[in-house]
Amino acid sequence: MWCGGIRLGCCRRPVTTAVATREREREREETMGGGQSKKAEEQSLRLLQCSIDGDLREVKHIIETYLEHQMKGNESGNDNDNDGHISDNGSGGDRVSHVKAFVNTSDPQGNTALHGAVFSGHMDVVRYLIEECHSDIDQQNGLGCSPTWLAAGYDRCEVLQYLLKRHPDPKSALLSTVAANKTGDTPLVAAASKGNVAACQLLKQMASELDVPWGQMVLRRNKGNDNALNVAIAGGHNQDELLDPFLAELSGADLDEPNTKGLSPFLIASERDDVKLAKKLLSKGASWNVQDSNGSSPLSIAAFCGNPHIIKEVLLQKEELRDRQNRNGCTALWLAVRAGRPEVVDALLEGGCDPSISNKDGLSPLDAAKKYKRDAIARLLEDHIASNPTE
């Protein structure tokens, strides 16, 4: 199972064989030689799994065991006390460097123990790894996700607040690509994409405390040209408490700017048949006249997707949308026919859409119905045309 770059179960071992396994590893290293690197790698994977599991006692044990091995024969070998505290005084500096290197070692997917603890929300493990073991608070995994990003994306609010307060440059963590993954998603975009209301509210609160402009965070777009509002809507998260703080910072132009797929929030609402969201966006200044990369209007998109509610309650109110053609010359009615949406075809005809408009290939909606064997829709069109001979 993969979640945010964390591979669950990557290094789990049966508890009943843990001691025997450690003994075999020690014996193999002593008899074969050259096994130190492999053993350290295995210990690092065990550390990651125990961090995911939230087993602080075992986390401390793994680190202490590793440290004892590294410091064997050194006079400083007994500086490690029973509560897992790592000394950084005097010769303990070597100990700190060993521990720091160990806990920041990643698995093949780039995850460290801190990534694992943050992912699962184990605050005690997170605190120990950072405060006692000097885990790198900004280290990114193979997907480019920092611990801060994971905390926001998985709604680990206590951990998120702690990480931002411990961060040497929290403003950077909130705003810049330091805390963005490889797609350019900031922690706010990560939280919004999952519908994590609490995490978004916390990020807004932290922005206020750190004197970071909230509007700047909301406007920040990723490499797909999506901002927090876009990804929230695309994820089907339309709660007022999530969207309203974003909408308060966005003007009509911001709302209408398409992403790299040519979609704006209003087009997504049309695609999802979300009447409430569409009305909210229009009230905030979104334009009726947006179109996707193929030149399809909100009405055309809703028609093709088979969304009668938004068509009847919102989109047919705008007369100029009714017969607008996309780059292929297809109207909303034509696309509804092609997709086999009889309920939508009926709604569009009742709403005044013209059944005589052909696409660039010269096919009318009725021609399309016959070509694509939409027999019920063909009869519907024929009946409508017969009843309205002037069209």
Automatic annotation (TrEMBL):
ANK repeats lie at residues 109-131, 261-293, 328-360. Residues 21-31 have a biased composition (Basic and acidic residues). It comes from the Eukaryota. InterPro entries: Ankyrin_rpt (IPR002110), Ankyrin_rpt-contain_sf (IPR036770). One of its GO terms (biological process) is protein K6-linked ubiquitination. Pfam families: Ank_2. Keywords: ANK repeat, Repeat. SUPFAM superfamilies: Ankyrin repeat. One of its GO terms (molecular function) is ubiquitin-protein transferase activity. SMART domains: ANK (SM00248). Signal peptide: none annotated. Residues 19-40, 72-96 are annotated as: Disordered. This is Uncharacterized protein. It comes from Craspedostauros australis.
